[in-house]
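G., the chain you wanted modeled:
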Amino acid sequence: MFGWLPNLPVVWIGVVVLTGMALLTAAIYAVVMLLAEGERAAALSAVSPGMLPPMGILFALFVGFLAVDVWGNVDRAEQAVADEASAMRSVVILSDDLPPALRLRMRALVRSQIESAVNDEWPAMKEQRANLTSIPTALADALHLAIRFHPRRDGQAVAQRELVTSIQDALDARRQRIIVSGSSINTVKWTGLVALALLALCAIALVHSGNRITARVAMGVFAAAVAVVITMLASQNEPFSGQLGLDPDALKQVLPGAR
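Predicted structure as tokens:
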């Protein structure tokens, strides 16, 4: 529903959302005030103010559930990137115990994998089109290289085991990174959030239909709060998209040691 919003700068997300809420609020106000004339005025203004607190609590609970999902996805994405960078760095460090030719080959594969992640996978994750169908060739080759290595000393045997473990950790972290890159608030949840906000605005307009200035003030304050909520959720709805999306800096920091 709002899939294009996360790609905008946060300021523009706020402007778009605030403008949309202002238009919806104005439309609801105009319709309710048009209905609250003549014989219907007394009936509409008699709507109990007691309905507003439950609606506010319901809206707040729904926002809370969405916020947990959004920030949970961001945390998982950050952890996956950090784990991948740590595992790749371990591969670089452990490669010091390999013979010179194998060490250079292993570090070249690490560099190739990081460059592929930065140049190919990150743009795909920003557009939420990354998937697990493609095999990370460089990491797969590094794993095969580590497995086929025949250690001559106990130290090399330990390094081989740790290398295999670190490469497997990097593969797992990459899988988690790509999986979480496709997470976002779905259309049903966005629809529910907007619907609750519109219903609350309708209730505010009905309760205060006898005093139009009060109605405008109350509806304006609530609409602004809804705009803030939607802006916060949309700006981090997709962990790798938009101005606040995660970048590959942690992986890039491994590159100097991979030379």
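The radius of gyration is 27 Å.

Shout if anything looks off.
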